[in-house]
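We give the chain.
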Amino acid sequence: MNEGWVVVVAVGLATLCCKAAGPVLLGRRALPPRALAVVELVAPVMLASLVVVQAVGGDRELVIDWTRLAGLGAAALALARGASLLPVMVLAAAVAALLRLAF
């Protein structure tokens, strides 16, 4: 087995352990309200950080790509107006693609 597969297996096992830790350690006990509030914020914060990295992240540098930012802006506007996720993603991709085609 080469080094790449060792890393894949190790990361997979670490992920499995992290996911299993909560149910194993807590059992059927309820989380305290403060801890529950933190857990509820983890997913939105992770999603927001991924969006920012994809929008302006480069190879260890900040990249201002106006087409990506225009797509992100269109998506934010559509979300603010109550659109569902799939049409928002299609709209963002279409705006970025059309701007790349035009310029």
About this structure: The helical segments are 3-26, 33-56, 66-80, 85-102.
